[in-house]
Design a protein that fits this description.
Largest sheet: none
Structural class: mainly alpha
Number of strands: 0
Shape: flat
Length: 120
C-alpha cells in the first residue's frame, strides 16, 4: 500500500485494546505528557527535514520536493543528526532527568545526620 493510500488521520485516532497504563499521578498528567511527547517527535522530524533542506541548498541552487523526500544522509550527516537529536532530547527531558538524579542522590534528612553525629 502506498503512502498516499494510507488514512493517517484515521489510524491516529485508533484506540489500543485493553486498559491504558497510567504512569503519572493523574490521567490528565499522562495525557499531557503524551501530547508533549508527540509534539517533541514532530519537532524532531521537522529539524531533520530542515537539515535536509539546508544540505540540499549547499549542493544546489534549486531543488524539488522530491529531492527532499529522496534525500539520504551520508555517514557524517547521519552521525551529526544523531548527535543533534540526542542533545535535543537531553535538553527536553532534563527536568525528568534532574528529578531522577535528585531521588537517587537524595541527602539524608537533617535528623539522621544529627543522630549520627550525636552517636559519635
Amino acid at each position: 500500500m502506498a503512502d498516499d493510500e494510507i488514512d493517517w488521520i484515521g489510524l491516529s485516532g485508533r484506540k489500543a485494546k485493553g486498559k491504558r497504563p497510567q504512569y503519572l499521578e493523574t490521567p490528565e498528567a499522562d495525557r499531557l505528557m503524551s501530547m508533549l511527547m508527540a509534539v517533541i517527535g514532530e519537532l524532531s522530524v521537522t529539524r531533520e527535514r530542515l537539515d535536509t533542506v539546508e544540505r540540499l541548498l549547499e549542493q544546489h541552487t534549486s531543488f524539488k520536493r522530491d529531492d527532499i523526500e529522496d534525500y539520504t544522509p551520508d555517514r557524517d550527516a547521519g552521525f551529526e543528526r544523531g548527535l543533534k537529536t540526542r542533545e535535543y532530547i537531553a535538553r527536553v527531558m532534563r527536568p525528568v532527568q534532574q528529578d531522577l538524579e535528585s531521588m537517587q542522590s537524595a541527602e539524608p534528612p537533617v535528623e539522621e545526620v544529627s543522630n549520627e553525629l550525636r552517636d559519635l
